[in-house]
Write a structure and sequence with these properties.
With 370 residues, the chain is an all-beta fold. The chain has one helix spanning 341-344; strands at residues 86-90, 94-100, 109-115, 121-125, 130-136, 140-146, 237-243, 255-260, 263-266, 275-279, 287-291, 300-314, 325-328, 335-337, 348-352, 360-367.
């Protein structure tokens, strides 16, 4: 049984300059049970700047405050002064622990802090514990939502620890240490005012890439880029964008010659010294680097200037063997074996890397303009 049970419309007020009343229950039940069907079960009002409206103290190993709700928040805190709605402080353990086992927003939320001007949740640890810890088996461990400031704000005053730390110890599961998502700005935004430190540092100790980026483009840099190791590119050739006539339909592998200052056209005569290169990207050989990507009102194609690329060739003029020099041919967009060394000077496209005995075909060549 409970020590005291008020079952009246109004229990009245008690005025005292000390504790209004003290109740102790030595049995297994609660010392005080307050139940209301239309208002707060327990309401505490304080007019002191240094004391709480409601204070709960547990001198054993239990909870200072335990709140449970079957339909709303277990603990709901609001502040009208710009201070924290809920404040958690710990001298050795956790300032606030939030646990959720399902239901509610996004499968359940361990701790949710919402603020329209101040701080939704503020967790402060004065020793070696954790200011705020959120633990959830289904939904978010900690969720911070704000309409006027940061959803979650982490402040670190230690030279070796982070303001906000995200750890995923699920082992083989592909979980995230920190997940950032935004519908209007950056998913994750990092800034640093230290002269020798990065705004965002990406370090992988498991053998994977330090930084993984996808998008169009996958990366954008404003300023110089410094690389201390090798730059490994999966493409095969160095290409540069050139314009060409709008009415022409040009396929990868086509041999191109210079038409005007910044425009090319399909080759159509033998030993043409205006040869510029081969349209990159045919078959499984893609360009590694493309120069001249500036925007233009004209159609532009990447022309392989160095490296390996597939090229259209015509072996009807002469059979092509590995290592043969190739030049332009009378067949539009096709190369042929350069049989005449005198005519070939200045019109060579490159060397054949695969033979073609007869007919027309697409073979890989080593671009070597000369």
């Amino acid at each position: 049984m409970s020590a005291i049970n008020f079952d009246q419309p109004s229990a009245g007020n008690v005025n005292s300059n000390q504790d209004a009343f003290s109740v102790k229950n030595t049995g297994p039940g609660s010392a005080i049970v307050a139940e209301s069907t239309g208002f707060d079960g327990v309401r505490g009002v304080s007019h002191s700047d240094a004391h709480a409206g409601v204070s709960a103290l547990n001198e054993s190993n239990g909870f200072g405050v335990w709140a449970s709700s079957q339909g709303g928040e277990g603990v709901h805190g609001e502040s009208q002064s710009g201070r924290a709605g809920v404040f958690g402080s710990s001298a050795g353990g956790f300032g606030v622990i939030g646990e959720s086992f399902g239901g509610g927003h996004a499968g359940g939320t361990g701790v949710k802090g919402a603020s329209v001007a101040g701080i939704g949740v503020w967790g402060q640890d004065m020793d070696k514990g954790v200011g705020v810890k959120g633990d959830s088996n289904v939904g978010a461990g900690v969720m911070g939502e704000s309409k006027g400031a940061d959803g979650v704000l982490g402040l670190g005053h230690s030279p070796v620890h982070a303001g906000v730390s995200g750890v995923n110890d699920s082992g083989g599961s592909p979980g995230y240490g920190v997940w950032g998502s935004s519908k209007g700005g950056e998913g994750v935004h990092g800034e640093s005012n230290a002269p020798n430190w990065a705004a965002v540092a990406a370090i992988s100790k498991g053998g994977g890439p330090g930084l993984w980026a996808t998008g169009t483009p996958a990366g954008h840099f404003e300023g110089n880029v410094e690389v201390t190791g090798d730059v490994m590119l999966t493409g095969q050739d160095l290409a540069e964008n050139f314009g060409f006539p709008q009415e022409q339909q040009v396929e990868p592998g086509t041999v191109m010659v210079i038409d005007t200052e910044d425009a090319l056209q399909v080759s159509s005569q033998a030993y043409d010294r205006r040869v510029a290169g081969v349209v990159s990207g045919a078959a499984d050989l893609k360009p590694a680097i493309i120069l001249g990507r500036e925007k233009s009102g004209h159609k532009r194609l990447p022309i392989a200037l160095m490296g390996k690329a597939y090229c259209k060739v015509d072996a009807r003029y002469a059979r092509i063997d590995v290592g043969d020099l190739l030049t332009t041919s009378p067949t539009p967009g096709h190369a042929m074996r350069a049989k005449d060394p005198l005519k070939a000077f200045g019109s060579v496209i490159g060397k054949a890397l695969r033979p073609l005995r007869e007919g027309q075909g697409l073979i890989p060549i080593l671009i070597a303009l000369q």
